[in-house]
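Q: I'm writing up a methods section and want to include an example of the input and output format. Could you take the sequence below and give the corresponding predicted structure tokens, formatted cleanly so I can copy it straight into the document?
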Amino acid sequence: MSQQKFENIRPYNDDEVPAAVARVVESSYFDEIVKYVFPDVPPQKCKEMFSTIKTVRDFQENIMHKAINGIISKTSEKLTFSGFDKLNNDHRYMFLSNHRDILLDAAILQVLLFDNEIETSEITFGSNLMKGQTVIDIGKLNKMFRIERGGNIKDFYRNSVEVSSYMRYAITEKHQSTWIAQRNGRTKDGDDKTELGVLKMFSLSSDKPFADNLNELNITPIAVSYEYEPCVFLKTQELFVSKYQKYVKSEREDLNSILHGIMQPKGQIHLAVTNTITEDELKECDTYLKNEKFHHLGQIIDKRIYDNYTLWKTNYIAYDMLTAGEKFKNYYSPDEKTAFVAYMENGLKRLIGDYDELCEIFLGIYANPVKNVKEKK
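A: Here is the clean output for your methods example:
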């Protein structure tokens, strides 16, 4: 399959890097971006650093790796990981991740892949976020490929086929792993579930039988767990509004969420690479009829994520508060609960809506992972 088929969505090739880097450096946003990402480096020094970038790997190693590590060190107490010993550079993978933060879920994976000497992956990036040449350049320099959002049913199907075809091409012909979320958009309520539409989309790019079709993609679930949920108060407000009316995003809402996710304290973070879906598991799914094949595969993926999800004191406190019990009181101290309640109350008082309803939504976001991990084993 020719790369020309994917000209509108693919990341940059190495020969396109110098021009893209020059555009980023000349952008009116450059000083503002590097001031936050590299606060201890003068803008002129940053421009000199950017001018040395000649390849995609250069950009990831010298810019993105340093930038994301800087964000993590400033906003997280600790980043841990597991499962990277399951990966090797002889294979390429479709990383299928639970999705809590627009930018950081995939960005943290890239840092850990690099640190574990595994080739970084290409990353899905919604067209709703690819606005402005600077954003497009930074995204495509960082191996991001575009997923078209919006349109009618016909557009949606055509775009799904294109993305499916590109990911299969990337894995099987370009020999590049890919990252995609398990659902369309972030998990807002803390209840990570794989959307069947995403799994069906994977299969659109091949006429092979079900098991052979999906086996060549090496679907590998990822579980990312944040002690403090990214954008939790923005998510709480959205879920409250959605109870009563259709929620409509403001023009800059996605950008606002990206900035909140980058800047807010995250506590501890753990990212787990789980076992790749096996051919035998896919053959088991193939014994079911039609949509049930994908439903059963979704259950296998969800269990992988739940089994590898790290529960923090924030999750246990919220569960006990929501259920008015003390089932998990041994996982946190009274002082930690007091601090969590203060954190909750300070954030909720800035939101619009019935306080008790907002409180229940907020606690549910933190409590749902406990329900999934503890009650569904």
